[in-house]
Design a protein that fits this description.
This protein has about 775 residues and is of the alpha+beta class. A hairpin with a 5-residue loop joins strand 23 (about 480-490) and strand 24 (about 495-500). It binds cytidine-5'-diphosphate (CDP).
């Protein structure tokens, strides 16, 4: 009965990405590829002002343009109770302006036309009467006496303050500081940056007037969640809403929130009885959709004379923009920022944060990170380097002295996390060895004598991914359990339906590999489906590297569920007791008689053709996974740079990245994820910048001003790995998608500061443009 099985390409195999077959042929199916009969096109008019009272809108000329079907204003939306919507952080956000605009680029009106170009042309014919108001573009301005009140429509809101939040133990931290031999501090700013996915946001909303069925094709990282949010916002029955996320050209957190464009297009389709397509252009994406970071941070570290860390104190002002719309699922106001003690055995810590409204786009999305963990990682890794230099210890040695040690796991952090597993020293040792640290330090000293500035920067980050356990994590009360549904057909081929939504991470490949590992079916025989809220199990979507920790776990668990049933079927076929059946790589054998065997394919066929009396037919199941804890990937990055002191130009010579994400499902995909993250980290550290002038004009509204690294600027990456499995994840895997974006910015900046430290430079805020580096050198020289 049984044939010899070839090696199963399960966990640990660099299986080629099945999705690339269609992508590299240009055969992907993105939102703009969707064309429905009778489809109309929407364009959005956006405010040129950052803060202005809306006195009136005259849309008559636009309305008169041939091809224009309708002009949608806030007034019209208000008639349907849709002028405002809830945000993921419990605030409200304007869908279309009714009273005043609160940031440049805010949605003021929308045109629906028979052609996308007519819709755009008509925007210019809309006459809006704005009355400019005073503008606030930073937390300092927001809290200044007499600052313009941005959210004057909110009852009881008398200033621009949104929240105050604290974590850790203030009293014991104060004591640690009072008793410290040495205190080192750092003020730093993590600037506003933008995920800038290749494909901008958009949707096709198709509300069928006859059936009331709403099908919305959209660029969403979380289709299931979005359906529930739509049901809550629009008051529609949930089964009448179908959200379909087809291929998505990158998300990086940008495609988690519900944006006004989605709501307006859906309302327009409902009112007009036609499908409505809305596709953002690049500038719209940069100026109005979810930004990331914008944290002004102050950190202090208490130390003993010998360099032992005894306490950490961090305070920050968060610039939230005009609406508090942080996309994060925790009960903590600043997401997981309190992971800020990082990889270090910190006896006590205290974090305090204040959020402020400003006249800037809202969002606060987790741009390739777990909800503010990037800011935290940057803070601690920059502070550690400065502390090492101030107390005169090599930064690697300083880390060794203070790392959480391997045998301290599971480790309870001072701010309440339970780190699952780690080997920080092991990862750093490998990175130091690969980069040739000791030799580099010698070369650096020699080069300095010649006036050449070489810098070596380290970052030994700890991440926290896999949101999350139901006690602390939910979105609008919905717990973060994720599902996997698996069906094995009679011929032994399978369909896996998952609640995560790939945006380029390769889920169609890696999740099939998990099933392959557990059931012994080759990955190419497993079709992975996702992205359709009507046809996949419930779950909260893909962001913050949570897919592997949650859906990966659900996939392993559902496979095991099917394996248990398959074992019963195998026992029936082999005519032995279930206890006498062994399983390996797709073969069920009889204990002690390995030649008596059936394959998973034989068993699958029997599930529909030859099952024992009393057993239900079929081989399928569904599992929802509630993670018992988060997973804590980590690593050490080492960056070597050369800085030209005369011009401030710096260039990267080496990037060595050692990552530990537990068990790697597909090493090639993991390497790709790390390459991408290191590249994004470099962009943030070196060149990306969205800033605002004093009138609130967004500078960084296109790719000439907001510089993404191209292949030309991107350094070469050298990767290494250690493997410390997660003890609570069924396959020992931790997330990895965001590790390098989280960990690498500090390594690049530490390298430049390392080069400039002897000149007296202590900090330069990102991006480290050559102009800023040059200015810092001049300022240090001037004393
Ligand atoms: O949630 P997201 O997919 O963005 O992040 P992730 O869970 O870290 O996974 C990113 C990609 O790397 C997926 O295709 C994973 O299956 C893969 N991966 C892996 O092969 N091994 C790991 N230990 C972690 C992720």
């Amino acid at each position: 009965m049984a044939a010899e099985t070839e090696e199963i390409r399960g966990i640990g195999h660099s299986v080629r990405r099945v999705e690339d077959d269609r992508f590299i042929r240009g055969a992907g199916n993105y939102i703009d590829d969707i064309h429905l009969p009778g489809m109309l096109y929407m364009a959005i008019l956006r405010s040129p002002y950052a803060h202005a009272k809306l006195n009136g809108i005259d849309a008559s000329a636009a309305q008169a343009l041939e091809g224009v079907i309708a002009v949608v204003t806030g007034e019209l939306m208000a008639q349907h109770n849709l002028a405002w919507m809830p945000t993921l952080s419990g605030d409200t956000e304007a869908v279309l302006v009714t009273d005043k605009v609160r940031f440049q680029g805010q949605e003021v009106a929308a045109v629906i036309a028979t052609d996308p170009y007519i819709a755009k042309d008509a925007l210019e014919l809309i006459d809006v009467d704005y009355e400019p108001l005073g503008v606030v573009v930073s937390p300092d301005q927001a809290k200044a006496a007499g600052a313009p009140l941005i959210r004057d429509e909110k009852e009881g809101q008398t200033d621009n303050h949104i929240y105050h939040w604290e974590s850790g133990d203030k009293e014991s931290t104060d004591t640690a500081f009072a008793q410290a031999d040495r205190v080192v501090s750092l003020d730093t700013f993590y600037p506003r940056s933008h995920p800038s996915p290749l494909e901008t946001c958009g949707c096709v909303a198709d509300v069928n007037p006859a059936t009331g069925q709403a099908t919305i094709y959209m660029t969403s990282q979380a289709p299931q969640l979005i359906r529930t949010v739509f049901a809550l916002v629009a008051g529609l029955p949930e089964e009448k809403i179908r959200i379909v996320s087809p291929d998505i050209g990158g998300g990086f957190g940008n495609k988690v929130p519900v944006y006004p464009g989605y709501v307006i297009a859906t309302a327009a389709s409902l009112l007009l009885g036609h499908p409505v397509k809305w596709i953002e252009d690049r500038t719209e994406n940069l100026i109005s959709t979810g930004f990331a970071r914008d944290y002004h941070m102050h950190g202090e570290m208490a130390l003993k004379a010998d360099g032992t860390m005894t306490g950490l104190r961090v305070s920050l002002d968060a610039d939230e923009g005009a609406f508090f719309a942080d996309a994060q699922p925790s009960k903590f106001k600043v997401g997981l920022f309190h992971i800020v003690s990082g990889s270090y055995d910190m006896p006590t810590a205290h974090v305090s944060a204040d959020g402020y409204y400003t006249n800037k786009a809202p969002g606060g999305v987790a741009y390739r990170c777990s909800f503010r963990v990037t800011e935290a990682s940057y803070m601690i890794e920059r502070l550690v380097q400065n502390a090492a230099y101030e107390i005169g210890i090599d930064p690697a040695e300083f880390r060794t002295k203070n790392f959480i040690e391997r045998d301290q796991f599971p480790y309870k952090s001072a701010t309440g996390f339970e780190y699952d597993s780690g080997d920080y020293q092991g990862a750093m040792d490998l990175a130091l060895e690969k980069v040739g640290y000791d030799q580099l330090r010698k070369e650096q000293a020699e080069a300095r004598k010649e006036g050449h500035l070489i810098g070596i920067g380290l970052a030994s980050f700890t991440e926290v991914v896999g949101a999350g356990p139901h006690k602390d994590y939910d979105i609008l009360g919905i717990k973060m359990n994720d599902g996997a549904e698996l069906r094995v057909h009679p011929t032994g081929k399978a369909i896996l339906k998952i609640s995560s939504q790939t945006q380029g991470q390769g889920h169609e490949t890696t999740f099939a590999q998990i099933v392959a590992e557990e059931l012994g079916i080759q990955p190419e025989d497993i079709k992975v489906m996702h992205g359709d809220s009507d046809d996949t199990p419930y779950g909260l979507g893909t962001y913050a590297s949570r897919s592997t920790p949650t859906v990966g776990a659900a996939t392993a668990m559902v496979s095991r569920k099917l394996r248990d049933k398959a074992r019963k079927l195998a026992a029936h076929l082999l005519e032995v007791s279930e206890d006498d059946v062994e399983f390996e790589a797709g073969r069920f054998t009889v204990k002690g008689a390995p030649d008596k065997a059936v394959t998973i394919q034989d068993v699958a066929f029997a599930a529909y053709t030859n099952f024992p009396d009393g057993m239900e037919a079929g081989l399928e199941g569904v599992t929802y996974y509630d993670p018992p804890n988060l997973t804590f990937p980590f690593g050490t990055y080492a960056v070597v740079v050369e800085v030209d002191a005369d011009t401030g130009v710096w260039k990267v010579d080496r990037v060595v990245a050692v990552d530990d994400c537990g068990v790697r499902i597909n090493p090639m995909i993991v390497a790709g994820q790390i390459h991408g993250g290191l590249c994004e980290g470099f962009g943030i550290a070196a060149m990306e910048q969205i800033t605002f002038d004093e009138e609130g004009n967004c500078i960084g509204a296109n790719f000439l001003d907001y510089l993404l690294p191209t292949a030309w600027e991107t350094p070469r990456f050298e990767l290494g790995e250690t493997v410390t499995p997660s003890p609570h994840h069924p396959i020992g895997a931790k997330g990895v998608g965001e590790s390098a974006t989280v960990g690498s910015p500090a390594a690049y900046v530490n390298a430049v500061i390392d080069a400039l430290w002897p000149l007296g430079v202590r900090n330069i805020d990102m991006p480290l443009t050559s102009g800023k580096v040059w200015e810092a050198i001049q300022a240090a020289k001037a004393g």
